[in-house]
Amino acid sequence: MSELVAITRSNGIADVRLNRAEKYNALSREMFLAIADAAKSFESDRQTRVIVLSGEGRGFCAGLDFASFQSMGERDDGSAGGVEVKRDPSAPNLGQKVSVAWRRVSIPVIAAVHGVAYGGGMQIALGADIRIAAPDARLSVFEVNWGLIPDMGITQTLRGIVPLDVAKELTFTGRIVSGSEAASLGLVTRIADDPLAAAMELARQIAAHSPDAVRGAKKLYEDTWHLGSRDGLGLEQSIQNQLIGSANQLAAVKAGMTKQPGEFKDAEFDF
């Protein structure tokens, strides 16, 4: 794993930190690759129960590295600013992967946002299941300021977080909002003076439950939130049928009956 993304694990919680503090964790090609590799490392991980995603130093992520941005338009090899640009619109490009990959991982992901989360940094945070921001954090769908549209999976993330008119206003203006305003808009889940500590506390609460039930719930919402009732009801039943009578489901019942912490095994199912 690249040192540009640091990962430590303890008690079922993976602490994932963007680790380019001297550049506000700005996104160079190497940073994109490191984040994509970090997300991929969790694809078959059945031991980790929660991922906490944050940034080292003074901010979460300042977006595209400006030196990389300056080189956009100078390349004719299928890349822009050192970032891969796929010609096939049916497949996610590298920039999209570092955002939507967190949604596709079966493990719940909590983003702890402090300092700045601009452009690509904002879109990475949007890829998390839950976002906790400092009240004075500064967030922006910034791309219009560079004459661009946001293209790191925002069509798959922002649509389920804020109303369409709010998404348009933020995107058309590129304006910077505080963590407090972001919470009022629904852009972040809630605010905390110490978002990393709050994210870790929430992670411990989630990790105390059956990992199969939590992963099944993430699968349920990710796959059905924008589908019709037939698909949603069908997936509810399908996941529930797998969980009923499983080792972790029985452990959850025992924990509830005895009022003791659950003794759960590693996740059993590939949701």
Sequence-ordered SSE layout with sheet pairings:
Layout lengths: L4 E6 L2 E6 L10 H12 L9 E6 L10 H5 L8 E2 L2 E2 L9 H11 L4 E5 L2 E3 L1 H7 L3 E4 L4 E3 L13 H4 L6 H10 L3 E2 H7 L4 E2 L3 H13 L3 H14 L4 H15 L3 H12 L13
Parallel strand pairs: 2-3, 3-6, 6-8, 7-9, 8-11
Antiparallel strand pairs: 1-2, 4-5, 9-10
Helix pairs in contact: 1-3, 3-4, 9-10
What would a concise description of this structure say?
The protein is an alpha/beta fold.
What does this structure look like?
There is one protein chain. The protein is α/β, with parallel strands linked by helices and 271 residues long. It has eleven helices and eleven strands. The protein has helices at 29-40, 66-70, 94-104, 120-126, 154-157, 164-173, 179-185, 195-207, 211-224, 229-243, 247-258; strands at 5-10, 13-18, 50-55, 79-80, 83-84, 109-113, 116-118, 130-133, 138-140, 177-178, 190-191. Strands 1-2-3-6-8-11 form a six-stranded mixed β-sheet, sandwiched between helices. It has a three-stranded mixed β-sheet with strand order 7-9-10. The longest helix is centred in the C-terminal third of the chain and has 15 residues, at 229-243. It is globular, with a radius of gyration of 19 Å. It starts with a strand and ends in a 13-residue tail after the last helix. The model is unreliable at 72-87 (pLDDT under 50).
